[in-house]
Design a protein that fits this description.
Distance between the termini: 115 Å
Number of strands: 0
């Protein structure tokens, strides 16, 4: 009878350990991947910032080229 009691006690402990261990394991996996997500966001930010810089440079170049074509009415 003692053998059955010990077996059931071990089974209960293992079951409860699995129930509480799973969220811990998931949190640990999320913590390991947190740097990757941050790196991805920084990469997108840098790419969008570079794209905005290119657009501003093109618009600025066009505005300067068009303003050079303006002829002053006073000679």
């Amino acid at each position: 009878m003692l053998h059955l009691y010990v077996t059931l006690q071990v089974a209960q402990t293992m079951f409860l350990d699995r129930l509480t261990d799973s969220p811990r394991r998931r949190r640990a996996e999320l913590d390991r991947e947190a740097g990757g997500i941050t790196l991805e966001l920084v990469s997108w930010f840098v790419a969008l910032l570079a794209l905005a810089g290119i657009v501003i440079a093109v618009v600025n170049q066009y505005a300067e080229a068009e303003s050079a074509k303006i002829i002053s009415p006073n000679p």
